[in-house]
Every structure is written in C-alpha cells, then in structure tokens.
Amino acid sequence: MKSNLTALIIAKNEEKMIQACLETLPFCQKIILLDDGSTDKTVSIAESYDCQVVSFAHESFAKLREKASSLVETDWLFYIDADERVTPALAKEILLHIEKADCQAMTMKRLNICYGQRFSFGNWQNDKVTRIFRKTSLLSWQGEIHESPIFKGKNIDLQHEIIHLTHRNTQDNLRKSTDWTIKEATALSAATVKKISLATILRKGLMEFYRRAFKYQGYKDGMAGMIEALVQAMNRMIVYIQVWELQQKPSIKSKYEKEEQAIKNLWQTEGQIK
Question: Which parts of 12-127 are beta strand (E)?
C-alpha cells in the first residue's frame, strides 16, 4: 500500500548509506533527494531508484528543509536522513495515521546505533524527531544547525522507532564535525561578546563528558558509551575553539596574509640569488 506521502532526503556525499535508506521507503508515493553539493555517487544512486533529484546547496539546515518541502505535491511529507532506516512496523503505523487523518504531524523515537551498538543511555534514549507533516500544516523551520519545525495542528507520538545508523567510525565522525561545528561556532560568535578563554574551552568539554557519561548514564552502554561521551566532549571543545578563532582581532586569516606579504617583500628586496 502506498500513501499520499513524499519522502524527502537531504544529502551530501552519502553514497555509502543512500541505497539502503531508499530500500526502506517503498511505501512512499514519491521520493525527492535534495542534493547539497555531493561529489560522489549519491545522485546517480538516487536516480537509479527513480528519485526526483534537485540540487540545492545552503549553509542553513532550516533553509534546506524549507526548500525540500516546497517541492512536495502530495498531501503529506516525511523527512528522512540517508543514515536512517524505516522498519515495516513503522511504515504501517505512519500509513495508518495518514489514512485515519487523526493528526497533522508525527513524532518518532530514534533508536541510535553508535559504533555498532544500540545505545540506551547517554541521553540518546531521549532522542525524538518530528519529521512527518501534512503539507498545509508545516509553516517553516527555524535554527541554522539544530533546526526545529514550526507547524500547526495535532502532533502525535508514534509507537515504533526509526533506526539511526550514526557514528559508524571515528573518521566519519570527524568529517561530520567539520561541517556542523563551524556553523555552531559562527552562531555562538554572533550571539556572545564574552571572550573565550582556555578555561571556557576545557569547562565546556568536561561538562559535556560528565553529562553524557554520568548524568545520563552513558557508562551503562559500556566502552562504546564512554567513547561516545568523549567524542561529544571533544566536539564541544572544537566548537568553542572555533569561536575563539572567530573572535581574534585582527583575524587569523589576515595574520597569515601579513606573513605571506612579508615573505614576498623579502624576495623583492633580497631575491637576487647568484
């Protein structure tokens, strides 16, 4: 059974994950891939599954989501990431509520698998995402990084989870961190005038580790849980290190330009080598 539902995937360089994601979406009437500047085989894989592919690059995740929703012609839309998977039970539950027309939005629990392990602690157990909307009820998205929807009408919590195959290895984690930490740092830099100190950077990292590992009992997920808490702590420190970079006056970029110019001047005045 197919519904009056369009799946929306916003992706960039997800050739390793996109095919398996698409294979969990046969219940959708249409699939649209909004490609955010991929340089790998993401687009060709999506096209082989008869997806509509639209190229649109933007720094704001909220703008990407709004662009994707503007392409939808069905009554319902469903945002899903390339590293997320729908189970048959979740698909049936979504279709049932669409058929019953008993809501305007649906929220799902997200089962996070990090470093190959299903996480039950570390605050991962509280992960919920609102991703399914009647198109006329979705008004907009807000937030440059941790974006959230603005919608009208009744929102229901689904019983079945969406599976999130995230943090598959440290290398992938670092790649993702380079994308989002600078965006968060830029937003923080614009919002605060307080100068970042070494104590601030260390405190932010230590507090994030404490929250993940002990307050939210990430240690109960074993070694993987403790490593993930450490990774999250490192990410927080990287964010604040980049805020410090953005606060430098003159800018770090201009300092390098000054050094380059000084070297050019040396070659102009002393560069005759015989």
Answer: 30-35, 52-55, 76-79, 84-85, 105-114, 117-118
